[in-house]
Amino acid sequence: MGAFARPLAGVDRDAWWAAVSPLMTPQGRLDYAGVDPTRVPFTRLTGPGLIQPQPQEADSHLQTLVRIPTDAGDYLIALEHRQQGWLVARATPQGSTR
Amino acid sequence: MKKAVAAVVAVVVSATGLGWIALAVLFTLFNQAAVAAANPCQQPLGGQLAVGDGTVRLPLVGPFTVTSEYGMRRHPITGVWALHGGLDLASSIPTPTVVAALTGSVVSTPTEPSGGNMIILDHGAGVHTEYLHLASRLVTPGQHVAIGQPIAIEGTTGSSTGVHLHFNVRVNGLLVNPRDWLTAHQVHVPALGSSGVGPPAGGVSAGPQPPGTPIEATGSAGLPARVGEYAGEQVRIAALIVKAGKDRGLDDWSTTVAVMAGMGESSLRNLDHGDAVRNDTVGVFQEGPERGPLSSRMDPYAAAGIFFDYLTRIPDYHSLAPTIAAHRAQANADPYHYEPFWPAAAQMVATLTANPALLATLQASGGSAACQPAGNLPAPPAAGTCPATGLPAEVGLQPAALTVLRCVKAAFPELTTIYGVGERSGGGDHPIGRAVDFMIDTYRTPEGNALGWRVAQWVRANAHALGVTYVIFDMKIWSVERDTEGWRPYTRYGDTPDDTLSHRDHVHVSA
Questions:
Q1: Among B500, B379, B338, which residue's Cα sits nearest to residue B3?
Q2: ipTM of the assembly?
Q3: Hey, are the CB atoms on B333 and A96 less than 8 Å from each other?
Q4: Distance from CA of B286 to the nearest CA of A (A)
Q5: Reduced to 3 states, what is the DSSP secondary structure of residue B21?
Q6: Which of A35, B244, B394, B464 could form a cystine bridge with B304, CB 3.0-4.6 A?
Q7: Hey, is the C-beta of A39 within 8 angstroms of any chain B C-beta?
Q8: Interacting residues of B380 by C-beta distance below 8 A, sequence separation 6+
Q9: Is pLDDT above 90 for B259?
Q10: Nearest to A41 among B2, B81, B277 (CB)
């Protein structure tokens, strides 16, 4: 999640994506490939993540939700367990941002 | 912080797009009379009378929206990933009537926890149709029903999140994709999220309509005051977005993506400021300076045009989930940001397109008459017979441009200041005698602007006969090459205050 933060000026998009994309599920990589990192609202994490109650839906992969505070509000991270370990499927801002 | 919250739960629930409540009273009567497309800006609109081969029809009467497809999806209530075995159609009128899709007999009328009040019809040859979530049933087991005969009122009984008809087709006991089955019987089914119109009850044999005939509303009472959670100016902005899409010849799915993006960016408000991350983004789509002049980004119609420019540039964008398509166009931070707005956007577009008169009477942008009905235009030119004008501007023109000058002057005698080769400097078509400028002396007045648009629309309507290649007026351009996009923003000189460079003060015609 720290990797996803808005980079400092001077870090280009490709470098940012090179750091972020290996942490994501294949679907996540497809969906987030169009993100402009300069528009990511937060710049750093502000505390530890809290594991959230398991969602009811039954996916084919184990899923865990983690709530992570940032300097632009909390994010809800959907993690899926794959061979490589836990990968990010979605990172959904809980505040009002786009 | 103005953007709406997108809670994960809302995301999951809304992914199925079933938030259909009966729409407010928007649809008065509609009839099937064809609309004569007098206005060249007016594209054929979404609502279509789907008339098939006569043996099968849509199971609904009147305007509706396709809200869910046959296929794997997450159930909106249980959250379970499973086959959605039918096609969901949500009517947009009160007490919508469900009719038999084809002639047959009533097998049973069960009530189940999932399907609610149901009707199962047998049509012979191993074909059954099933109608789920009904409010009430009008038939009993054993009864014979004819195609188009009312059999039920649409409802939301059983496992359902809003009033809609879930329509199943079984062939030899197995569920098949109703869309494919209807299509095979030459019944047109609008795309997911798009709207259509079911034929009147009582069968389609009486006076079938040609497919694609636009419906016409009786009267045009203006835009609805409220659609779902959106009201007033928000509805007008949504209508401008839809109109911008229609004027480009885009389908309802694409315009729905744009309305969804507008909801997610600004709640359909023409904001004059940005957000916490970027304070230089403005307008309905929160577009930054890199996307065009301020005047365009703050003009909902033009801003939507910018959005469509980016959307349609995405390869194969129709194959993407709506929120991903919008995200790729907007390059925002959260790809799923727009997802919760899809049902509301689909409802909005269905409402605004079900009645073509709503859009036809809408003024396009910031006082511009670009796509207003042009009124009664002069008759087409009698090619080759338009009289010489004696104006100095005729000197040096190529044959096609000369025809344009003479025929426009004949159709609009009130135009007195006309420029050809000698009066215009610089590059482009003027020095080579392929362009004519018709100056609108009174362009600063509404009447002058309207006159300019009448000229521009008339030239566009007769472009083929006149050999015209493109027309520019009032910061809009239309070209033969990109005819399907209609009048596009003319951005060559950006935000220039010069009324000649921006073509506010004259109609430029190249031929």
A1: B338
A2: 0.76
A3: no
A4: 11
A5: coil
A6: B244
A7: yes
A8: B461, B462, B465
A9: yes
A10: B277
Q: pTM of this prediction?
A: 0.43
B337 in A contact zone (CB under 8 Å): yes
**Please, which residues 291-330 of chain B have a Cβ atom closer than 8 Å to chain A?**
321, 324, 327-328, 330
Nearest by CB to A57, from B74, B332, B333: name it.
B74
- pLDDT per residue over B108-133, tens digit each? 998 888 888 999 999 988 889 999 99
Q: Determine the residue type at B374.
A: A
- Residue B43: the pLDDT is 29
- With residue A88 as reference, give the H or E element that holds it: strand A85-93
Q: Do A39 and B278 touch (CB under 8 A)?
A: yes
Higher-confidence position of B89 and B320: B89
**Whole-number Å distance between alpha carbons of B3 and B266:** 7
| Chain B contact set for A41 (CB, 8 A) | 276-277, 333
- What mean pLDDT, rounded, does chain B reach? 76
Query: pLDDT tens, B389-398?
Result: 888 888 888 8
Say what the pLDDT of residue A59 is: 47
DSSP letters along B281-339, please?
Answer: -BTTTTB-GGGS-HHHHTSHHHHHHHHHHHHHHSTTGGGS-HHHHHHHHHT-S-TTTTG
Neighbours of B452 (CB within 10 A): 24
Predicted confidence (pLDDT) per residue in B170-184, tens digit? 888 888 889 888 888
pLDDT at B211: 31
Structure confidence at residue B261 (pLDDT): 96
Question: Which two tokens mark B226?
Answer: 């409220």
Q: Which of residues 10-29 of A touch B (CB under 8 A)?
A: none
| Separation CA B406–CA B386 (nearest Å) | 6
Task: Give yes or no for residue B325 having a pLDDT over 90.
Answer: yes
Q: How far apart (Å, rounded) are the C-alpha atoms in residues B298 and B304? A: 10
Tokens of A38: 């300069």
Q: A3 in contact with B at a CB cutoff of 8 Å?
A: no
Does A92 sit within 8 Å of B332, measured CB to CB?
no
Flag if A94 and B334 touch (Cβ within 8 Å).
no
Task: Determine the 3-state secondary structure of B262 from DSSP.
Answer: helix
Give the least confident one: A3-7, B8-12, B180-184.
B8-12
What is the DSSP secondary structure assignment for residue A26, as one 8-state letter? Answer: H
